[in-house]
Amino acid sequence: MRQRIQHLRDYFTSTHEANRAALLLLGFGLGIIAAGFVILYLIDPREGETFSLRQLVSDLYANGGAELLSIALTVLIIERLNRRRAIQERQERKEELILQMGSPDNAFAIEAVRFLRQKGWLTDGSLNGAYLWGANLQRADLERANLKGANLFNANLKAATLNSANLTGVDLVRANLQGTYIRQVNLQGAYLRLANLEAADLNGANLQKANLDAANLQDVYLVGANLRGANLRSAKLQGVKFEGVFGAAPPTCDETTSLPDGSHWTPDRDWREFTQPEEWAAEQKAKNHPKPAE
Question: Does residue 118 carry a pLDDT above 70?
Answer without folding.
Answer: yes
